[in-house]
Amino acid sequence: MTKEVKTTRNLKVIEQSGYRYQATPTVMLKGKWLSEFGFDIGTHVKVECEDGRNIARYMRVDKLIRPFKDRLDVGDLTLTAAVELSYLSEDEQEAVTARDVKVDEKTAKAVRAAAGELTEGKLEEILHPAKAPAKATMISVKIPAEAEEKYFSGLKAKDRTDLVMHALEAWFAGKEAAYVQQ
């Protein structure tokens, strides 16, 4: 018969004697259940309380390999990205750290989604995605005021652009035709 492991524990903040025997709020985590989740004696756990979720996050990042823990400690890796990476196997974590790239939360989520099927090629696609070609942009061209009055007066911006494009196409088509005829 397999023993069912409880993944959620309810804790109570208790009072304990603190500095100068003042009552101090205390949360105590102890029991064999901690080692069942990888928190053996001597495991370091860092707790920063912003809200209740962060305690669980800090407990989760103990599953990270040392290079990721070091990045987290110096601020090169966010807590949320670290949690995502903690779900990778040690081999997969090693493959990511070998790339020596900054991993943000979006990238960490993409890597985690590929966990278990993470190949070198897939990892490369996630860490260095192909950039979409840049869209054609508009540039400004200066023309004399008298040309603007003569050729563009009363035209909307799109109509001006169309006129210039047609004129240039005709000009260069004529140049090519003249070049071929010579």
Radius of gyration: 32 Å
- Proportion in β-strands: under 5%
Q: What profile does the largest beta sheet have?
A: 2 strands, antiparallel
Task: Give the count of structural domains.
Answer: 2
Report strand order across the widest sheet: 1-2
Instruction: Give me the count of strands.
Output: 2
Which structural class should the secondary elements be placed in?
mainly alpha
Q: Which residues sit in consecutive blocks of at least 5 with pLDDT less than 50?
A: none
> What are the secondary-structure elements, in order, as H or E?
EEHHHHHHHHH
Overall helicity:
40-55%
Oligomer: single chain
Question: What is the average per-residue confidence, as pLDDT, rounded to a whole number?
Answer: 83
Account of the protein in words:
The chain is mainly α and about 180 residues long. It has 2 domains: about 110 residues, no CATH class; about 30 residues. About 50% of the residues lie in helices and about 5% in strands. It contains 9 helices and 2 strands, in the order ββααααααααα. A hairpin with a 5-residue loop joins strand 1 and strand 2. The termini are far apart. The model has no long low-confidence stretch (mean pLDDT about 85).
